Structures are given as structure tokens and as C-alpha cells.
Amino acid sequence: MKRRRYVLDSFAVLAYLQAERGGAKVKDLLKEAKARDAQIFLSVINLGEIICVIERKLSYETAMKTFKNVLRLPIQLAEATLEGFSPLPISRLSTPLPMRMPFPFPWHKSLEPL
Prior knowledge:
Layout: E1 4-8, H1 10-17, H2 23-34, E2 38-43, H3 44-57, H4 60-72, E3 76-78
Parallel strand pairs: 1-2, 2-3
């Protein structure tokens, strides 16, 4: 049987970490991944965003603990590459980019773990 593959963004991981709405679904996906029934990917860009949000809301120390805890989860970090990249004008985005990234990045098209 082929394992299901999921891509989490920073909002999904933050919902899980902070026990917010949607966090329970992420918890279920993590259980699937731990049982090797699924693969979960997270972009290194999203990991950076998670750490920035935690540091801004709480503290640097908490952000570093969170970083270590996320790395222990059954999540594979996915590298962001330029392969398949197609710039989209910022003016066409419906929501602002949280980290002031210069462009949206379709990293999910290449789901090879680091």
C-alpha cells in the first residue's frame, strides 16, 4: 500500500503546537506518520516562520525549544529549490506574506526530504 503524503504549512504546525483549531487534525496526521501509514513534509521556510512567530509571541528560548521539538516529530523537512519556480506578482496575492518573502514559492512540487 502506498503511504499517503501530506504537506503542512506553518499555520497547521502552530495550530498543533498551541492546541488551536485544526491542531487535532495535525495530531492525527502525526500519529499516522509515526505508524508509517503516511509521510508528512514541512518546508524549511515554514519551519523558519514557525520559529519567528514563537519568538515574537513568547521568547527566543521558547522558540529554540520549539525548534528542537519540531525536529523530533515524524515530519520530513523539504528543501526549497528553484526547480519549477514561477514568480507570481505580489499584487496578485490575496493575503500578505508573513515573513516578507519576495515571492511565493511552489516548493511542494518537489517533495524530496533533506
